[in-house]
Amino acid sequence: QVQLVESGGGLVQAGGSLRLSCAASGRTFSSYTMAWFRQAPGKEREFVGAISWSGGGTYYAGSVEGRFTISRDNAKTTAYLQMNNLKPEDTAVYYCAADLKYGSRWQGEYDYWGQGTQVTVSS
Fold first, then answer.
1. Do residues 21 and 79 touch, judged by C-beta distance below 8 A?
2. Each residue's pLDDT tens digit, 19-63
3. Are the CB atoms for 43 and 55 separated by under 8 Å?
């Protein structure tokens, strides 16, 4: 069982940066792939990126590739989403999720979810 709590959201101007955190409970954090998804108003939840249990592998959605970076600190049982050069279209509620498998971009594969944190990018 893993419980996830996101933080770090807020209001930022276009071109700015934010770092989201996802704090996990449980001693098995290091076994899980950690992913970030987002959901904008009126849209379906979409995959943002994910990181392997060791941190050695990452993959991203094309819309954020080169601007967003996922990292993790297994000692702190926390995953991060560094977002640079933010655009108004990045405005969404951001969720972290965990799964034992690696490689999926489909939300249905992820077993554990946080409550989400709002990111708003003004133009």
1. yes
2. 999 999 976 899 999 999 999 999 999 999 999 999 999 999 999
3. no
